[in-house]
Amino acid sequence: MARTSHRNRIYDDYLGRIQRGEIGPDDRLIDTAIAAELGVSRMPVREALMKLAHEGYLVGTTRGFKLPDLSHREILDIFEIRRLLEPRAAAAAAEALDAATLDAMARAVSDAASTLDSGDITLFFRASEAFRNAWLGAVPNAALRETIQRYLSQVQAVRLATMRDPDAHRVIIEGLQALLDGFRRRDVLATQDRMLRFVMAAEMTYQKLAPGNDA
Amino acid sequence: MARTSHRNRIYDDYLGRIQRGEIGPDDRLIDTAIAAELGVSRMPVREALMKLAHEGYLVGTTRGFKLPDLSHREILDIFEIRRLLEPRAAAAAAEALDAATLDAMARAVSDAASTLDSGDITLFFRASEAFRNAWLGAVPNAALRETIQRYLSQVQAVRLATMRDPDAHRVIIEGLQALLDGFRRRDVLATQDRMLRFVMAAEMTYQKLAPGNDA
DNA sequence: TCTGCCAGAATCGTATACTATAATAAAGTC
DNA sequence: GACTTTATTATAGTATACGATTCTGGCAGA
Known about the structure:
2 copies of one chain form a homodimer. By secondary structure, chain A is mainly α. The first copy, chain A, folds into 2 domains: 6-66, Arc Repressor Mutant, subunit A, CATH 1.10.10; 72-209, Up-down Bundle (Four Helix Bundle (Hemerythrin (Met), subunit A)), CATH 1.20.120.530. Chain A has 10 helices and 2 strands; from the N terminus they run αααββααααααα. Chain A has a two-stranded antiparallel ribbon with strand order 1-2. In chain A, a hairpin with a 2-residue loop joins strand 1 and strand 2. In chain A, helix 5 runs antiparallel to helix 6 (121-137) and helix 9 packs antiparallel against helix 10 (188-209). The termini of chain A are far apart. The mean pLDDT of chain A is 93. Chains A and B meet through helix 3, helix 4 and helix 7 of A and helix 3, helix 4 and helix 7 of B. Chain B binds a DNA duplex through residues 1-2, 5-7, 30-32, 40-44, 46-47, 60, 62-64.
């Protein structure tokens, strides 16, 4: 009867929670616990969590699944990939974005800008995520979009590490505003350049604020 | 006792088979059949195959797992990603390659070149795969390496579609020779350029020989 | 001969149960 | 009081079983 399986519903559910930042770095996702909560057996939960792990959104430990804690090196390695992919993806999205999505992006940017005064970290997180998901959703190359999405954990880790620094906060918001302007004008080249600058700014900020160098 | 789980052993086993081209486009991988063959239950086999599917090496159908049959569009989309990533990755590998790996690559290229006369398609396939795995193994950025490896299915599909054309065959071997020269001389910029040319040559050849346009 | 339906078989999704293993807590020793 | 060793327990891994679903092939009727 079910139009989709338990496994897929649970997968969608937890992917959404991860994207919205509802899973903390210390949370442990245990199949039996989730299964009991949902009134199903371990297996569909286990399979959903393993799928998230195979896609990089979680890592399995001997004691439950948790968010990956990326090392300094891994974060820098992924920055290298993002520098290569995201400018091109953003440029392609600039040609494809529709008005409704642009409006949503404008709202996200103004939400984010408002947190410069309010210091509302949660809103800033949500607005950044909304902006990113909006333009990514408009990338016509599905494979490219999915590859970029898989680095969600890195984006969130960087955000977490840099968010509380006022300078970084300001730099990011200026970057978002510049990007929004490029997207709005459907200026492919400007968008490409600005996305590269945006990623590189994030990288430099991260390097400055990074918590030493772990494994 | 087992140093690793059944699941992981089966995963490694079948990933190897896929890489070596031992799984045909019409083969169906059925968990119960493999389980019976190995003397284990369905579950570890099922989980191994699902992991391969989550990583893009297989797709699940209602009747077993099989190789993904990428559409024309998907193949072109992945070419766009490869154009962005592989030149940079090859350039980084050029700095890191050791002598033994270079020797292995030289052997792969000469094996591949020998098939111009012999027409030994299997050897050409194996040699191309060996060359690719060799330089990819030397890419220092692990995340980049893994992302590129995930497009194995596309590489194989393109190889399959272009391999039998004599012109394409020759173009590929010339590209391999040019790449080998770049790698050998540890010439980062030349390697980067040549890898871009190599990928673009494959793309153009594929477009010329491509089997129409399916879904 | 073609088309639609039905029965059977193959395979998937899920449930439950058991074992193995690794983290944690507890107990003992120096 | 710190360090080692031994229970305890939580959780992962695997096995087995069964109902649900979806192909497949044959049969009936047009």
